[in-house]
Amino acid sequence: MSNAFTSLNPNPRVLMGPGPSNVHPRVLQAMARPTVGHLDPWFQDFMEDLKALIRMALRTDNALTFPVSGPGSAGMETCFVNLVEPGDKVVIAINGVFGGRMAENVANAGGVPVPVEFPWGQPVDPNVVEDTLKANPDAKVFAFVHAETSTGVRSDAETLSKLAHAHDCLVVMDAVTSVAGIPVEIDAWEIDAVYTGTQKCLSAPPGLSPVSFSERAAETVRNRMEPVRSWFLDLTKVMGYWDGTGGRSYHHTAPVNALYGLHEALVMLSEEGIENSWARHAAMHERLKAGLEGVGLGLLVDEPYRLPQMNAVTVPDGVDEAAVRKTALETYDLEIGAGLGQLGGKIWRVGLMGQTAHPQAVTICTQAFADAMGKD
Amino acid sequence: MSNAFTSLNPNPRVLMGPGPSNVHPRVLQAMARPTVGHLDPWFQDFMEDLKALIRMALRTDNALTFPVSGPGSAGMETCFVNLVEPGDKVVIAINGVFGGRMAENVANAGGVPVPVEFPWGQPVDPNVVEDTLKANPDAKVFAFVHAETSTGVRSDAETLSKLAHAHDCLVVMDAVTSVAGIPVEIDAWEIDAVYTGTQKCLSAPPGLSPVSFSERAAETVRNRMEPVRSWFLDLTKVMGYWDGTGGRSYHHTAPVNALYGLHEALVMLSEEGIENSWARHAAMHERLKAGLEGVGLGLLVDEPYRLPQMNAVTVPDGVDEAAVRKTALETYDLEIGAGLGQLGGKIWRVGLMGQTAHPQAVTICTQAFADAMGKD
After folding, report:
1. What is the domain class of B14-19+274-372 according to CATH?
2. What is the ipTM of this complex?
3. What is the CATH code of the structural domain delimited by A25-270?
4. What's the pTM value of the predicted model, to 2 decimals?
5. How confident is the model at residue A246 (pLDDT cuts 50, 70, 90)?
């Protein structure tokens, strides 16, 4: 019988979009190690190591820290579906695509989202948040995006968290793009629930979402009046497997090999040192910015709020942004991201995340933009 | 700085539990190929190939066929959270752990589960189902597990599906353990929604759940009155990415490398031919059964309902079932599964799934049981 299907052979790309970022061969090879059972004694020890590594990356001692068996969207949903009960009010700062998704998640969980909108490309303004919290004294949760992947903006997580606590709210933070790229201090900032992704500054393949919950947040989940609206993401069930203090009770089959990859990526981060990773991202951003300025391109976001790892590059008038991306892919095997939502067509999103935060990538990207702008 | 974390080195095991099963090196190496972006033009073509391969494995032409970015539990939830609206009545046949989970999923989605219970180790009895369907003429969905992983029982999917259609119900089937191990005919049996897993007879690592929906089921989702209670699993959103007929709109970042692994496993299945895969599972079951009989062990399930790929082996009186599993793991690097739920301590679950359905594995397993039973 002839067979139409053949093995795959993806061309290596330089991944400078909004994620995934480049994955180191060490991580790819870790994923190719032998699959073992999710209840294997060796794997149970491995799970404890992995939780410790995630705590290192998030700078937390939270007991309830583990990787959700799905991408960042599953991590986001884990936070909201567990913390929010029907009727709960959640104040959500929205300054890009991902804040908007938080509001949809809250509604799905039966909660009442109270959106606070900010212009895209601007950070969340704590004064406006404070006014909203004052006007909603019954709000249970405040949620915001630390590093908006859609705009390249960093908001002041510590200030926002302390403000929300002063108004007796639990704090949920999206740290998908921030972790390992800029300082993230879950315990020092007193974040109650955080979700992140593997395919950004951690440089593992996409598909998992490390999350962490403070004791206060864990207590809130334990004291729910109504059942969690998801079986797959129900923390009261999942933790019987990941907690492990009372043996591992089977919930779902863990994505064993994907977890190997995340482990290796975190081992590499621990070898580099997380402060060195932050510094590397900052330095590569400066290098990229200089290169872009040299070919006449500027950044959307004002300097104090710029994410080094996610650069929103303004598309000049008269330039076909899609054509530039297409040419970069065809010429250099270089992926650059498009704008999302209301910024579609107006910006390129240039990621410098994880392994991609490297002089090689910056050089290739700068040359691709130089070609596009007719500069040599 | 000294570094407490080191790369991992799992010992290869022979995986004869309830999944994961052994993963072929071709599949492991496929997962280690370069990560590309989830919107890369090459990846978009790859996605179409992958959908075609899943259709091959499920024997369906359903347009709405794709791998959910999470394990089987996420696939189960995808079926129920999309098809069930608050107040919808769902008749669920329960003859093991996984039928019970279906009922919990229906309740999470706001539906009203109508459980029909059968003894564990027995198949679903169509006559009892018919009585329940007659007594519940307003039921919208009928759900059952084709191959109960917790008991090793096969139910008669075709009869159950046609019966449910005669009572105007949509049919949801759990095919996690059946696909590629025994005949599964989604179109011929007129199954409306099916979910499966990668880590059973497909022999890819755990973490993904191929699903497929009939046009009637897709129409039901499109015509919902209330929003889907999950953002991550909402088909009306996910399909903007996987459908691809109108371009790929970003929903979540696909688990790129895990999808490479599933693709390679399905390519291997297409090379073998699915009928040959069914026959191989049946032959290895016969070989195992003969070996077990030779050392005085029997099977829980009556012959007509036995799953070749999931053997519930009765633990003889006076035998410490956990000690047998521990010794097998330590001596032969052989994983055997424990009983689940009410069958805990009463059976071993011996998987012969995918790559594990091989004379090597059968021989090792038979010897381990011979050791345990004091036979040579």
Report:
1. alpha beta
2. 0.97
3. 3.40.640.10
4. 0.97
5. low
